[in-house]
Structure formats: structure tokens, C-alpha cells
Automatic annotation (TrEMBL):
GO molecular function, one term: 4-hydroxythreonine-4-phosphate dehydrogenase activity
Protein name: 4-hydroxythreonine-4-phosphate dehydrogenase PdxA
Enzymatic class: oxidoreductase
E.C. no: 1.1.1.262
UniProt xrefs under InterPro entries: PdxA_fam
Keyword tags: Metal-binding, NAD, Oxidoreductase
Length: 336
């Protein structure tokens, strides 16, 4: 099987993205499984290479047809949309926010045209993004709009732990009001599609409760009775191996021991906190429900670490590895 082309978006130029990208591209394990192509700024990438004392040729190209994918050469599709001299590392800059959006936009267009196998994103800064005029709370919402889909979900993966979220970038109050049987079922089915592509043939699913002790039969909240239990019953009726609602304070412990293949979390922090505690540097974010494959690091721009050359590229490497796995799975199905 041919190695897939993976498009890596540089993210916010003032953040940690450029450094972890060049670190990842210097890794043999990345080069061995894919043809990496960066969508970003050539000058910023060269600076990042100097920061980490890395050795490679940085080659500026304008379109994918110019890429040669040679050893020790980092090829950058440079949109010429950023003056690197105006970017101060570790500082919010609307120019960097605007450029980050445009890198993502370009990468998605390539993925939709099947020019690349998947998109892997370095972190963007939400404040810079919004100050540049793009009013989105994060990557997930941008991707849904660019791909023209409404039903999406966010999944975090750390090893064999996989958590799909019913809601993500909402306040806690909004997340509670957002909940419904239909949204839980949609998230569950999107999650099942993803774990199937990861090679899990008969996934065991657990649905988290929203309230302490999963509501304690309505004593601590009725969301379980109104929304979660009906969703679980309907899913079971469709032949899905699912249990819940399970109190979150025990659910993740049980999942870590291997009892479940997929967890459905009700809101952002319910799923993010345990997974980031278990594997902050290995976590991968996947956007479910898109017509393209998109994976990402599970951390932010880390302004406090920029320019030091000490950031870990492990989350980005894991994101590339998972993107390649998902891309290859699709290719296998095409020819099977």
C-alpha cells in the first residue's frame, strides 16, 4: 500500500505548533508511514527548526503538485498570507489567527478533493482567531462549516481509551440544556463508526451520567431519566452493546481496566479531564461526522513553552499515526 499524503496545518504561528511539527517530521516513525505536507509559513517553520537545533531543508511550494517528499526535506505549501516579522512568540496576534484559519481552510479543501488522505492540525489560539474576525470557539465548529455538515462530535483517544462528547465548546449551563436523547444517540453512532475504523469489531459502549451518581434515580437530577436512559434503551433496541448511565467517577476507572471500548461523555470536561490525566502527551483529538479524516493534538498553543525547544511532539505524532491508520482502513475497504 502506498504511503498516504498527510496535510499538517501549522496552527497559530505564535504558538507551539511550528516547533512540534518540525520535531515530528524529523522522526523516522513519521516518515516511514506517510508523506507529510505542511500548510503554513516557510519562515516560521525555518525559525522553529533553528529553535530545536534540527537539520533539514525547508522547501517552499505553492501547490501539492510541486511536492517531492524527499528524505530530510520539509515541504511547506506557503499561502504567503503572513509576515513572520510581525509575529512575536507566545503573544496573541490576530494576524496569526487569520493565517491559522486560512491554513485549515486550504487543507480541508485538499482533503475534500482527495488530494491528501487526512488533515492533522496543530493548535490554533481561539482568542487570536476571534480577534481576526473568525468567530468560532474552536476547530470542530470550523471543520463542520467548511465540510457542510451539521452532526459532528469530538472524540479524544489515549491508547485504547476512546471518549466521544455529546457537547464540547459550551458553558456547563449550556451543555446541560443542550442534552437530548437524539444528540446522545447521534454521538454514540458517530463514535461507533470511528472505533470500527480503528479495528474494534464488537465495541462495548458505556454512557456516562450527567449528575453525581448518575442522578441517583432522580434525587440528584432528572437528565438521566429524561434523556440518557431513553437513549441507551433505544440503542440497545438497535442491537448496540451499550450500558449506562454509569457514574463518571467510576466509569473511567472501569474503562481503563479494559471493560469498554467507547465512552460517551455528556460534556467537554467530563471526558477531557480523565483522558488528559491518563495521557496528556499522547492524547489525540478526532472530529467525528466529517467527510474527511481530521485528527489533532489534544493540547493548546502552549504560549509559555514557545521558543524553548522543550515541547513534546508526542501528541502530534500520535495524531499522525491515527490519521494514517484511518486513511489506510478506508483504502483497504475500497479495494476489498
Amino acid at each position: 500500500m502506498n504511503k498516504p499524503i498527510i496535510g499538517l496545518t501549522m496552527g497559530d504561528a505564535a504558538g507551539i505548533g511550528p516547533e512540534i511539527i518540525v520535531m515530528a517530521l524529523l522522526e523516522k516513525r513519521v516518515r516511514d508511514i506517510c508523506k507529510p505536507l505542511v500548510i503554513g509559513d516557510t519562515g516560521i517553520i525555518r525559525q522553529a527548526l533553528q529553535i530545536i537545533n534540527g537539520r533539514a531543508t525547508v522547501r517552499k511550494i505553492t501547490e501539492i503538485g510541486e511536492a517531492r517528499f524527499k528524505k530530510d526535506v520539509m515541504e511547506i505549501i506557503d499561502l504567503d498570507n503572513l509576515d513572520s516579522g510581525l509575529i512575536e512568540r507566545g503573544k496573541v496576534n490576530p494576524l496569526a489567527g487569520k493565517a491559522a484559519f486560512e491554513y485549515l481552510q486550504y487543507a480541508v479543501s485538499m482533503a475534500l478533493k482527495k488530494d491528501i488522505g487526512a488533515v492533522v492540525t496543530a493548535p490554533l489560539n481561539k482568542e487570536a482567531l476571534n480577534k481576526s474576525g473568525y468567530n468560532y470557539p474552536g476547530h470542530t465548529e470550523i471543520l463542520a462549516e467548511l465540510c457542510g455538515v451539521e452532526q459532528v462530535s469530538m472524540m479524544l483517544v489515549v491508547g485504547n481509551l476512546r471518549v466521544a462528547h455529546v457537547s464540547w465548546h459550551l458553558s456547563l449551563k449550556e451543555a446541560c440544556n443542550f442534552l437530548s436523547k437524539e444528540k446522545i444517540l447521534t454521538t454514540l453512532k458517530l463514535g461507533l463508526q470511528a472505533v470500527g475504523r480503528m479495528g474494534v469489531e464488537k465495541p462495548r459502549v458505556a454512557v456516562a451520567g450527567l449528575n453525581p451518581h448518575a442522578g441517583e434515580s432522580g434525587l440528584l437530577g432528572e437528565e438521566e431519566i429524561i434523556h440518557i436512559i431513553p437513549a441507551v434503551k433505544e440503542a440497545r433496541g438497535q442491537g448496540i452493546d451499550v450500558v449506562g448511565p454509569i457514574p463518571p467517577d467510576t466509569l473511567f476507572y472501569r474503562a481503563k481496566k479494559g471493560e469498554f471500548d467507547l465512552i460517551i461523555a455528556m460534556y467537554h470536561d467530563q471526558g477531557h479531564i480523565p483522558l488528559k490525566m491518563l495521557g496528556f502527551f499522547e492524547g489525540v483529538n478526532i472530529t467525528l461526522g466529517l467527510p474527511i479524516i481530521r485528527t489533532s493534538v489534544a493540547h493548546g498553543t502552549a504560549f509559555d513553552k514557545v521558543g524553548k525547544g522543550t515541547a513534546s511532539p508526542e501528541s502530534l505524532i500520535k495524531a499522525v499515526e491515527l490519521a494514517v491508520q484511518l486513511t489506510n482502513k478506508i483504502e483497504e475497504r475500497r479495494f476489498s
